[in-house]
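Researcher: Here's the sequence for the chain we discussed earlier.
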Amino acid sequence: MTETHVTVKTDSRAASKIMIRRIAACAILTAMAVLLMYLEIPLPFMPVFLKFDFAELPVLIGTFALGPVWGIVIELLKNLIHLPVTQTMGIDELSNFITGVIYVGTAGLIYRKFRTKKGAAVSMAIATVVLAIVAIPVNAFITLPLYGSMMNFPIEAIIGMSAEANPLVKDKISLLLAVFVPFNLCKGTVVGLITFFVYKPISKII
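Model: Thanks. This is the structure I predict for it:
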């Protein structure tokens, strides 16, 4: 056997080990994300149907450790696994997938270019702002209309429930700006801060 054949075989084995390790990490992080979806926390000035969870934390860690594509895979698997117990006919899972991809995808792409602590902080800050902005049309043109058409939960009822928790809510625009924007800013910031402090220690074992 020539030296070239030995090198190719060795490289192939190394690549296989890396792929197996990434798949295992992806599976573990997906399981953690699914579990965290059930730990919902109500927030002040937010309607009862909008609760905070830490499910994006393992997704973001996976994105930083494995790359943006793997982060999107974890995001997809997380929501697919949660579908059988959905209470919204899959609407929340669809919205969660879209906004999650926006958040971890943005952070992952930036961090891939600047793999430093400062790069991580900047990537998560930008991702949080992008999430809050892009989530406005996602909710306005996808999530809220689907609630009305598929669940018979019209926008008027959502505005009414939101106004009970947040007096700033008067109409659809104020609902988007006074509820969904601060909610996503809060979620992105909290997940980003935790990731900033725990990512490096965790990444050593992924």
